[in-house]
Amino acid sequence: MKSMIYLDNAATTQLYPEVLEEMKPYLTEYYGNPSSIYRFAQKSSHAVERAREIIASMIGAKPSEIYFTGGGSESDNWAIKGVAEAYQSKGKHIITSKAEHHAVLHTCAYLEKQGYEVTYLDVDEEGMIDLEQLQQAIRPDTILISVMTANNEIGTIQPIAEIGEIARAHGIFFHTDAVQAFGHIPLHVEDMKIDLLSASGHKIHGPKGIGFLYIRKTVKPSVLIHGGAQERGKRAGTHNVPGIVGFAAAAKRAEDGQKAIMEQEKNLRDYLIRRIETEIPFSLLNGHRTSRLPNNVHFCFRFIEGESMLILLDEAGICASSGSACTSGSLDPSHVLLAIGRPHEIAHGSLRLTLSETTTKEELDYVVEKLKQITERLRSMSPLYEDYLNVARRA
Amino acid sequence: MYSEKVMDHFNNPRNMGEIEEPAGVGTVGNAKCGDIMRMYLDIDDKGVIQDVKFKTFGCGAAIATSSMATELVKGKTVQEALLVTNKAVMEALDGLPPVKVHCSLLAEEAIHAALWDYAKKQGIQIEGLKEPVEDIEEIVAEEEA
Fold first, then answer.
1. Which ipTM value was assigned to this complex?
2. I want to staple A210 with a disulfide (CB 3.0 to 4.6 A). Which of A28, A95, A243, A293 is the partner?
3. pTM for this entry
């Protein structure tokens, strides 16, 4: 077994060596600025345009609708602030959900301070928005609906095509944060009627610091990053050529293997979920059972706190994450877990394990064994567990 | 992010467990903010803390501060135990990250809560001991004010 078991692929992924190989020439040999006129620089500009074509074809877009950015957060910021500013004469109302990534939620909160109104849709116990509630939230001044494709914590996949249908029927733009979904599950901007889509390179074994925003030709958001005329004058800044090349290489790789990887990850995901549910008492699965990212496993373990679990897992060589307050630096646990109705004390005991295509069953067996020991040990120290046992004994 | 001492006390907590029929027991913190500490004291006729045990629901720092607090009060008189402040606990642990300072406050408060319970059971007053605040957020707010 490997010396470290990495189960935090929703946080970031390993850059694949073959992706790095494709990037290397653009770090050393072809370092020209794609905006320069000489032939040497054309090597770089051709690479950028090739990458744009690869990525566009993956989601059913035209290459001219793909804009490279510095990552998922920038794409989310641009989509929401850009549409809000450009279409404010039409209205100042935005609809999103309570379970969005902070890149969306904090952007919406910022816009609220600028005089915009935002409706935050509820999510149910499994993290799904209610299409009925979405319909009812739509107003004459609604200009944008922003709902993530798949949740970064609990992995729930939203009914994107249905949301797109509703948005289109009302003439409202639809943005989706697909940072966790792009490359992992099939996405098609025409079939799903998506107008803007955010994605990131480092979640699919590509480099960090690169993302894109898909903008449908008919949508004209304001510019967020002003400066040079890169990206058809819509996003300034010298192209991150090696990043763009690596992103496309990783995307291509993800697309080619997608079907097989999805199958393999789903099997392992469901195996891990089944073992935890049957072998660790007081474990509660978070997120939807089937409409779920193939690599996401997310549990709450009652009577224990997430950070303690993470430290003990780390000592056992396992990298994972938690939505506990202690890992976020605030007193409140994950807003996503609170949105699906987990009480605070249970939300504090959450654990996210996110697989990759290199994850093995053997590794997961080891993780389950360690988790059993860790939950048992922390429960033996927990006054909440003691109280629970005392109540149970009396009953 | 944690000192070696914190990690040591987290991994090998001292005095973890319960005391049956304790002279005093106190629980502080709340599940909402993610930390709950319970401290059990066994105190003899001379007012000396003969044994102390803890149980904690919380992060690494919460567990380590509870463990260190029990070490600092064990064998002390009630009056001496009152002098074990959160700063003493932090110093003994070679420091805590700023966001974890509230854990040491919780540990100090847990001792006070157990002593308060002891005094109540004995029908005595301990000089300098105030009724403990159950909700740690109040203490943190006080500290910051």
1. 0.90
2. A243
3. 0.93
